[in-house]
Amino acid sequence: MTAEHLQNVKTDFENSPFWNFVGLELRELRDGYVLLALPIQREFINVRNTVHGGMYASVLDTAMGMAGRSLGFDEVATLHLNIQYVKSVMEGIVTAEAEIIHQNRNTVFIEGRLRNEDGELLGHCTGTFKLFKGEQV
Questions:
Q1: pLDDT tens, 70-106?
Q2: Which domains does the chain possess?
Q3: pTM
Q4: How many CB atoms lie within 10 A of CB 81?
């Protein structure tokens, strides 16, 4: 994809209220691949004193949507997510990595992995996303 398109994707996501609310940071963006970082905040902690699973899902969904957009599309919409929660985390910085597995004309299948600072797998996700070119969702 063009550098201009990737810059537009970066700008769109970094200007998102959700992105700024949770404190996401972009570490890498290229065609079909995204790496995000998220410093854990006190507000992410649930009654078990670990990061709420909804944060895992939200961060993975964001990384995977961004990976879909990196292919040259104007919009993507999540059609399906399947998440396996592997390990809890309470503090530090987590990273979410998303990579394209398969693409056809209208959809893309993406794999996401959430890891702690030691590189241990916290969550694994696959998802199907609808692709839009030149139209709004």
A1: 999 889 999 999 999 999 999 999 999 999 999 999 9
A2: 3-132 (3.10.129.10)
A3: 0.93
A4: 16
